[in-house]
Amino acid sequence: MTNKQINAAIAEVCGWTGIFEHPEFGLMGVAPETHGCRTAVEEYAHCLNAMHEAEKLLNSDDIFEAYYLALYETTQSTRWPVCATARERAEAFLRTLGKWEEVQG
């Protein structure tokens, strides 16, 4: 998945609505619990802070354990998953929720 696809997919999981590609400003949408104002979608694939907020949705022990295992597999290294980049966290997050799409081609 591209970073743009990742950002849109995680935004949808996080409750964003009306996501679209603005020719000048990139991905835009309506964040949850707002008054309907469109704003730029979070850069989940690049921002650890944004991923931290998304990870809060993994609120059961079982799903968080599955996420941690997916994160470990995604990093594919001997380093600890807690050192994973935002992109690696985003991929593991989407894999855990069954939203990851393999690149075709």
Strand order of the largest sheet: 1-2-3
What is the CA-atom radius of gyration, in angstroms? Answer: 14 Å
Number of domains: 1
Q: How many beta-strand elements?
A: 3
User: How much strand content do the residues show?
Assistant: 5-15%
Kindly, what is the distance between the CA atoms of the first and last residues, rounded to a whole number of angstroms? 12 Å
Overall average pLDDT: 91
**Uncertain residue segments:** none
Distinct helical segment count = 4
Write a structural description.
This protein is 43% helix and 13% strand. It is α+β, with helices and mostly antiparallel strands and 105 residues long. It has one domain (3-96). The termini are close together. The mean pLDDT is 91.
List the defining traits of the structure above.
105 residues, alpha+beta, three-stranded antiparallel β-sheet, 4 helices, 3 strands, globular
Task: Describe the structure in brief.
By secondary structure, the chain is α+β, with helices and mostly antiparallel strands. Helix content is about 45%, strand content about 15%.
Sequence-ordered SSE layout with sheet pairings:
Blueprint: H1 3-13, E1 17-22, E2 26-30, E3 38-40, H2 48-55, H3 61-75, H4 86-96
Helix pairs in contact: 1-4, 2-4, 3-4
